[in-house]
């Protein structure tokens, strides 16, 4: 069930409309925490897309050391082969760029990369060249990524190429939308809405475990959710950010944290802002609840 993202969906349609950009590339950076619904939004958007040809790839955490692994889906679409065979014929990223443009001709295209934080260097180079390459029709680029995970090279390439850039951040679902999603899973226990913190993935996990137990459902699912939260925090936060997050959760002020860690208050403030953005919570109190749930 797709709920709570009508505004973001409409914005994607507007900024990536093939008629809206002329010869200017349009680049969208779609940011959101683990499980917040980036892939669901992409799926809904692409299901209704009737514009330019779509080139889609999903980068993989385990493929960051495989050259061109991050754009494997695109290479298979265009050439009917994977990166290993292709690299035997194409030795440099610029050669691959020319080959891609030859396959596409003068037709417009929409390049979509899910989990772009896992792009390998070679794939990033190819995408960088595509973003900066002029085109008579203008291309669309849609990069979905976790907070802090977008390759800076692509941002800089978009600026250098004079692209129209847009940033869309997915916040946690509002309580009404979260309740509707939970209800669609056959669960009416609204305590689970608060426990999930507006994260659709956690809502589905809670619903699944709710159906597996009939006794004390909230307490029974909490252990499984705690594990998911711990994995999310370990993946998203650096050791320094984790330390600061724990001090915030304990109620310490930025000034107190700065003194304890021998940092400036401004540096701590920057860390806290980044932590809130990465975890998808809106306040220090929300961060404290998230950490408490993670254990």
How would you summarize this macromolecular structure in one to three sentences?
The chain has 295 residues and is of the alpha/beta class.
Structure characteristics:
55% helix, 295 residues, single chain, 5 strands, 10% strand, 3 domains, Rossmann fold, 15 helices, five-stranded parallel sheet, alpha/beta, Arc Repressor Mutant, subunit A
Structure report:
There is one protein chain. Helix content is 55%, strand content 10%. With 295 residues, it is an alpha/beta fold. It has 3 domains: 6-169, Rossmann fold (3-Layer(aba) Sandwich), CATH 3.40.50; 172-234, no CATH class; 237-295, Arc Repressor Mutant, subunit A, CATH 1.10.10. Strands 2-3-4-1-5 form a 5-stranded parallel sheet. β3, α6 (121-132) and β4 (140-145) form a beta-alpha-beta unit. α5 packs across α6 and α6 runs parallel beside α7. The longest helix has 20 residues, at 217-236. The protein is globular. The model has no long low-confidence stretch (mean pLDDT 82).
Give the SSE map:
Layout: H1 6-16, E1 26-31, H2 38-47, E2 53-58, H3 72-79, H4 83-89, H5 93-104, E3 109-114, H6 121-132, E4 140-145, H7 152-160, E5 164-169, H8 175-184, H9 191-196, H10 200-212, H11 217-236, H12 239-249, H13 254-261, H14 265-279, H15 284-294
Parallel strand pairs: 1-4, 1-5, 2-3, 3-4
Helix pairs in contact: 5-6, 6-7, 10-11, 11-15, 12-14, 12-15, 13-14
């Amino acid at each position: 069930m797709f709920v709570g993202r009508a505004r973001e969906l409409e914005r994607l349609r507007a900024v990536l409309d093939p008629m809206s950009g002329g010869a200017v590339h349009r680049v969208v950076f779609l940011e959101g925490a683990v499980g917040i619904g980036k892939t669901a939004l992409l799926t809904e958007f692409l299901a209704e897309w009737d514009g330019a040809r779509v080139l889609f790839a999903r980068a993989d955490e385990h493929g960051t050391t495989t050259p061109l692994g991050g754009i494997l889906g695109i290479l298979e679409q265009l050439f009917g082969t994977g990166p290993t065979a292709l690299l035997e014929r194409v030795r440099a990223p610029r050669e691959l760029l020319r080959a891609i443009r030859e396959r596409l001709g003068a037709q417009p295209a929409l390049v979509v990369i899910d989990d772009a934080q896992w792009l390998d260097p070679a794939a990033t180079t190819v995408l960088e060249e595509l973003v900066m390459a002029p085109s008579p029709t203008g291309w669309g680029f849609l990069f979905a990524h976790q907070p802090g995970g977008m390759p800076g090279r692509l941002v800089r390439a978009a600026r250098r190429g004079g692209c129209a850039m847009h940033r869309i951040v997915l916040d946690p679902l509002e309580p009404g939308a979260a309740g509707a999603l939970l209800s669609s899973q056959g669960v009416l226990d609204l305590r689970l809405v608060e426990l999930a913190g507006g994260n659709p993935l956690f809502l589905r996990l809670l619903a699944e475990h709710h159906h597996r137990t009939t006794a004390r459902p909230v307490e029974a699912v909490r252990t499984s959710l705690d594990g998911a939260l711990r994995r999310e925090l370990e993946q998203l936060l650096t050791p320094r950010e984790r330390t600061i997050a724990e001090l915030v959760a304990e109620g310490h002020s930025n000034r107190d944290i700065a003194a304890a860690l021998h940092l400036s208050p401004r540096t701590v403030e920057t860390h806290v802002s980044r932590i809130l953005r990465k975890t998808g919570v809106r306040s220090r109190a929300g961060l404290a609840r998230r950490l408490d749930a993670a254990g």
